[in-house]
Design goal:
By secondary structure, the protein is an alpha/beta fold. The chain has 3 domains: 2-201, Rossmann fold; 211-297, Rossmann fold (3-Layer(aba) Sandwich); 299-433, NAD(P)-binding Rossmann-like Domain (Rossmann fold, 3-Layer(aba) Sandwich). Helix content is 44%, strand content 13%. It is built from 18 helices and 14 strands. It has helices spanning 10-21, 33-40, 51-60, 97-109, 126-141, 161-166, 178-187, 189-192, 203-234, 238-246, 267-280, 286-298, 301-309, 337-347, 360-367, 394-397, 401-407, 422-427, and strands at 2-6, 25-29, 64-67, 79-82, 114-118, 147-151, 171-174, 198-201, 318-322, 351-355, 372-373, 386-389, 412-415, 431-433. Helix 1 packs across helix 3 and helix 11 packs antiparallel against helix 12 (286-298). The longest helix has 32 residues, at 203-234. The relative contact order is 0.09.
């Protein structure tokens, strides 16, 4: 079976590589010439554990190809996936211009039946717009070629995307013809044979499922952060509360860890887009609006604690920051809490020294010379007045506290991920603030 995937960003590249891993012939297409040339040389544009090995293996076996020419990549192809970006428009709604351009380009060059599958995260009603865009190009050509449109949202976690794709919890497919359904059944047969379920539904429900899933997870995060802030006020320990509610099978333990708010390419954008979708139908998603409000405020919590500690005067202070990526195992800094933290520290007149195991190059691209970049996690501590932790990388969890105490000008740690034990740090003479616990008692 041959398929083409348009877009070699995070979703497109992982999707293409993993489909080729199960024996499908895949061509990944992108208009970025440099990116495609680098991929042909084995240079992967993103950090994702295990992805480079999968790409290299399948390129070598001749199952994974890269091209800048979509028209040449449609020959003998049964399925075309659109995996291009849907960035937020000025009002927060999803910008579909790249999605619709893929449909138009396919319509200009297709020669036989094709199934057009939207892999990008798109709002309800996008499939119809794709259908109209593609049909419009066929009309211009004066041809009447059969095609189907389907929705197949992704549920990949950055840092575990390869395993998520190859061993999915579920595969959601929205389609409206038997031919489209049978094609998708053949495409996903290697997965269903291994017991991974494909859930077929109508296209509208499939489009909604992606947004609903991410919005539910975002809601759990903001709920727990709200509870953490209340715990500090009333004197409760949010870690104990988390264990108490997480043991309830109806709630579960995932996504109830307090912190500095969610970030990344999905949750902020998808929550915003779903709110805008509801607004366009004159319905207000009050819960999600509160989720967004809580999350935006939570990104300032660490700086607020730091400001209070120094009597609201950070001028001339040197602050070390561990963690720049929005989560571990990725170099993605889109909507990362670290960016809000850094901006607020700089506005307060502080000098900021940063370190992240994999996101340093991305940080330099975004921040330039606004901050100082350390060689390692201890380098940034030298003569720093405080350490802030924004990302729970494994190497940060068991540091040498004796070295840290010697390097820091003040033995002060503000932990935005609750990775340390309050009593242990107190015994070591380190002042410690975290999320959801009143550490001043």
């Amino acid at each position: 079976m041959k398929i083409t995937i348009v877009g070699t960003g995070y979703v497109g590249l992982v999707t293409g590589a993993c489909f080729s891993e199960v024996g499908i012939d895949v061509t990944c297409v992108d208009i970025d010439v440099n990116k495609i040339e680098n991929l042909k040389k084995g240079i992967i544009p993103i950090y994702e554990p295990g992805l480079d090995e999968v790409v290299h293996r399948n390129v070598k076996k001749g199952r994974l190809h890269f091209s800048t020419n979509l028209s040449e990549s449609l020959d003998d192809v049964e399925v075309v996936f659109g995996a291009v970006g849907t960035p937020p428009d000025e009002d927060g709604s999803a910008d579909l211009k790249y999605v619709l351009e893929v449909a138009r380009e396919v319509g200009r060059h297709m020669k036989d039946y094709l199934l057009i599958v939207t892999k990008s995260t798109v709002p309800v009603g996008t499939a119809e717009k794709v259908r109209e865009a593609l049909k419009g190009e066929l009309v211009k050509r004066g041809v009447d070629l059969p095609f189907d449109v389907a929705s197949n949202p992704e549920f990949l976690k950055e840092g575990a995307a390869v395993q998520d794709f190859l061993k999915p919890d579920r595969i959601v497919v929205g389609c409206d013809t038997d031919r489209a359904k049978k094609t998708m059944e053949r495409l996903y047969k290697p997965f269903t044979m291994n017991g991974h379920p494909v859930i077929f539904m109508d296209i509208t429900s499939s489009e909604m499922t992606k947004y609903a899933a991410n919005s539910m997870l975002a809601t759990k995060i903001s709920f727990m952060n709200d509870m953490a802030n209340l715990c500090e006020i009333v004197g409760a320990d949010v870690n104990m509360v988390r264990k108490g509610i997480g043991s309830d099978s109806r709630i579960g333990t995932k996504f109830i860890y307090p912190g500095t708010g969610y970030g990344g390419s999905c949750f902020p954008k998808d929550v915003q887009a779903l709110i805008k979708t509801a607004d366009s139908y004159s319905y207000s998603l009050k819960v999600l609006k509160a989720v967004e409000e809580v999350n935006n405020a939570q990104k300032s919590v660490l700086v607020n604690k730091l400001m209070k500690h120094f009597n609201y005067d950070l001028k001339g202070k040197t602050i070390a920051l561990w963690g720049l990526a929005f989560k571990p195992q990725t170099d993605d800094m889109r909507e990362a809490p670290s960016l809000v933290i850094i901006r607020k520290l700089l506005e307060a007149g502080a000098h900021v020294k940063t370190y992240d195991p994999v996101a340093m190059k991305e940080a330099e691209r975004i921040l330039g010379n606004k901050v100082e970049y350390g060689q390692d996690q201890y380098d940034v501590l030298i003569d720093a007045d405080a350490l802030l932790i924004a990302t729970e990388w494994p190497e940060f969890k068991f540091p040498n506290f004796n070295i840290m105490k010697k390097l820091l000008k003040n033995p002060l740690i503000l932990d935005g991920r609750n990775i340390y034990d309050l009593n242990e740090l107190k015994d070591r003479g380190i002042t410690y603030y975290c999320i959801g616990i009143d550490t001043t008692k």
